[in-house]
Design brief:
The chain is mainly α. It has 14 helices and no strands.
Length: 338
């Protein structure tokens, strides 16, 4: 579909080799990152003080199940009755229930709880599922730190990769989110993985790498629909890879093979997304309703109690100030702006 022969421009994305010192530095960064992420995972002592997390855990516990071996009792083909649909109908009203996130985190944590329940009975309860979700959140955040290193290493060298991973490992926002069972850390990991695979496509284009890039994008969207813009760099990676000839020189834009590669990547992304969000296809209206509700909240059309605090804050300046002083810190915020 697209050439697999290396070119001069493609080799610029090949990663430099790692010295023993660099490997030890990366290992030390990951150890420090793991300590601050896994420390105090039960920070609220089973009080379930995070409202979004509490809601997601309740949805995981009450709406997601797969009765085995009686699969027929799951009603998989009926979105209103399916035990795998977080937007299934409310037994009291018969109307689809609200859920603003993706299904992938729910399936992952529910499956983990099912596997561990014979050894840890609490794994299927609200306390156990909360802790399992936080463990997964911390693990995926560690994965993001590693991916950040790999991206920095490919683009700017080993030192830049180590600096990126170090800054990210000490970012207050990331450490905080790693202590919550929500979609944020999983979403970020798959977004970063998609970008890394996009660089691999530029380095050495192949159908396999194009498909892997699409699969990562589909997993990101299965965590949260707001990940959809990741399809833009996915398509761009295919188009840029398809615009180089064997000598590494640019050729005419939008070659058919490049467009075919982008179409293949989008197709894989759609298949993976629907694999973990099948009821978006089987019953799209509740999903569209939830997306519209979240969009109205973000645009300020709907004012909710937990968004009142952002009214009359100065645009851009407020966000940068929050990043600088509270969430990312001065070092990472300054580096990002620079």
């Amino acid at each position: 579909m697209i050439t697999t022969e290396p070119s001069k421009s493609q080799t610029s994305f090949a990663p430099p080799s790692l010295s023993v010192r660099a490997r030890l530095a990366l290992a030390a960064i990951l150890v420090v990152a793991a300590i601050v992420r896994f420390y105090g995972l039960n920070w609220d002592e089973n009080q379930h003080l995070h409202p979004d997390e509490r809601f997601i855990v309740i949805v995981t516990m009450d709406r997601i199940s797969l009765p085995f071996p009686n699969i027929g009792d799951a009603h998989l083909g009926d979105p209103r009755r399916s035990t795998l649909n977080p937007r299934s109908a409310d037994p009291a009203t018969g109307q689809p229930r609200n859920f603003a996130y993706g299904s992938l985190p729910l399936y992952l944590v529910k499956l983990s709880g099912h596997i561990l329940s014979p050894f840890w009975p609490a794994a299927n309860g609200i306390d156990g599922l909360t802790l399992l979700g936080r463990v997964w959140s911390a693990l995926f955040d560690l994965g993001t730190i590693l991916v950040a290193f790999l991206i920095g290493r490919r683009l700017y060298g080993v030192a830049a990769g180590l600096l990126a991973s170090l800054l990210l490992s000490l970012t207050v926002l990331d450490i905080q989110l790693a202590h919550f069972y929500a979609s944020d850390t999983l979403l970020t990991f798959f977004l970063m993985l998609t970008l890394l695979l996009g660089l691999r496509v530029l380095e050495k284009p192949s159908e396999g790498r194009v498909m892997l890039m699409g699969a990562a994008a589909g997993l990101a969207m299965a965590c949260k629909a707001s990940a959809a813009p990741i399809l833009l760099p996915v398509g761009l990676a295919c188009l840029l890879a398809g615009r180089r000839n064997e000598d590494g020189e640019p050729t005419r834009p939008f070659q058919f093979p490049a467009i075919s590669a982008a179409a293949l990547s989008f197709l894989v992304a759609a298949v993976v997304f629907l694999l973990f969000q099948p009821y978006v296809l089987l019953d799209p209206q509740p999903f569209i309703r939830d997306i519209q509700t979240e969009g109205d909240m973000v645009r300020g059309i709907t004012i909710l109690p937990y968004t009142i605090q952002y009214l009359r804050t100065p645009p851009v300046i407020y966000q940068i100030g929050t990043l600088f002083f509270w969430t990312a810190g001065p070092a990472l915020t300054s580096a990002a702006i620079a």
